[in-house]
Design brief:
This protein is of the alpha/beta class. The chain has 13 helices and eleven strands. It has an eight-stranded parallel β-sheet. It has a three-stranded antiparallel β-sheet with strand order 7-11-10, covered by helices on one side. The model has no long low-confidence stretch (mean pLDDT 97). It binds flavin mononucleotide.
Length: 363
């Protein structure tokens, strides 16, 4: 059988050029990461909202399930700035009705820190030594990247435009994730306005492949082997898939997220800042429509995420899709329900089939 090895598989030590995307907020359980890794992909933890002790527990749990390399992923946040009382009040007023609709106590002003401290997380990760570390929404200082490299950890960063990719290459990352506008979850943009850095995966991958010398991983709207083969045809060295892994048996996504994803139509994803304070793509629901429609007041990321946390959790727990963030990419209707191992093996076969089909064209 033809091998799918690329310079990315060589770099990461995986059998396949497929990355199960990091997905913060409880989706990327140790069982999911281990199953993806055991099947030949790179399993990734989305640790953005995970405290260091919980990261240690997750990594210990996954190490008991697999010898495969693993990826730990983080968000790069600007330091928290003080929020004035008026802004807190406006943002609270905008969501208070939704809290009441779920029978929750009225929302209270949020207090810093709104998310775990990245430096503390990274200091812990240097002890835990995952094989790979990726980051999103920003860059890491070159000294940190050097320290990670000295520990043998491969690093990758998300880019939503050529400028960000070149910047990351110059800082010393080992690979770039080219995140196209189709992608589910948060836009990784940090040098450009995210709404101006919405180039689709096909165009972005090709542009970034031509602009940098290090391996490039295409992300956004890739759900099957045809998509992975397309990414490889564009010159990418691998593909990162998020939405495709959400319905997997091992994924920790709330049942309501899985159900609505499996029922998604082409036109059901949209971008909102109203859940977290930064633009992210997901399945449209009442909260997104009303809050976007009213351009309701919001706090900056990640304070807004802290403000909506209890609402999202209660909505998910009640199986109510109205007030929970159900991040998903534009190819959501291609989502399939299976185990992560089955998905990775299916992706492998489909990719090989797609390559075979293309190579026999016009013969
Ligand atoms: C539910 C969800 C959560 C995500 N969380 C993260 C994250 O924590 N870190 C990250 O780098 N990317 C995150 N992403 C973005 C993915 O890395 C990737 O860019 C995206 O899933 C690719 O598009 P696709 O969903 O169409 O496959 C998330 C995506 C989804 C769907």
């Amino acid at each position: 059988m033809t091998s799918l090895s690329t310079s990315l598989t060589e770099l990461l030590g995986t059998r396949l050029p497929i990355i199960q995307a990091p997905m913060a907020g409880g989706i990327t359980t140790p069982a999911l990461v281990a199953a993806a890794g055991n099947a030949g992909a790179l399993g990734s933890f989305g640790f953005a909202y995970t405290q260091p002790e919980a990261m240690a527990r997750d990594i210990e749990a996954v190490r008991a399930l697999t010898k495969a390399p693993i990826n730990a992923n983080f968000f790069v946040n600007a330091p928290p700035t003080p929020i004035d009382a008026g802004s807190q009040r406006d943002a609270i007023d905008a969501v208070a009705g939704y809290y009441a609709a779920l029978g929750l106590p009225a929302p209270q002003p949020v207090k810093a820190p709104y998310a775990p401290d990245l430096d503390v997380q990274l200091n812990m990760i240097e002890d835990l030594k995952p094989e790979v570390l990726t980051f999103h929404l920003g860059d890491l200082p070159a000294v940190r990247l050097q320290r990670l490299r000295a520990l043998g950890i491969k690093t990758g960063g998300s880019a939503t435009c050529v400028e960000e990719a070149r910047h990351l290459e110059a800082l010393g990352v080992d690979f770039i994730i080219a995140q196209g506008g189709e992608a589910g979850g948060h836009r990784g943009s940090y040098l450009r306005n995210p709404y101006e850095a919405m180039t689709g995966t096909l165009a972005l991958t090709r542009l970034i492949v031509r602009a940098v010398k290090i391996p490039v991983v295409a992300a956004g709207g890739i759900m099957d082997g045809a998509g992975i083969a397309a990414a490889l045809a564009l010159g990418a060295h691998g593909a990162q898939l998020g939405t495709a892994f959400i319905p997997c048996t091992e994924s920790g996504a709330p049942a309501v997220h899985k159900q609505h994803l499996l029922a998604a139509r082409e036109d059901t994803t949209t971008i909102t800042e109203k859940f977290s304070g930064k633009p992210a793509r997901g399945l449209a629901n009442r909260y997104m429509r009303e809050m976007n429609g009213a351009n309701a007041p919001q706090l900056a990321f990640p304070a807004q995420n802290a403000l909506t946390g209890p609402l999202r959790a209660a909505s998910a727990k009640a199986g109510n899709p109205d007030f929970v963030s159900m991040w998903a990419g534009q190819a959501a209707p291609l989502a399939r329900e299976m185990s992560a191992a089955q998905l990775v093996i299916t992706l492998e076969h489909e990719t090989l089939e797609a390559i075979e089909r293309l190579s026999s064209l016009n013969r």
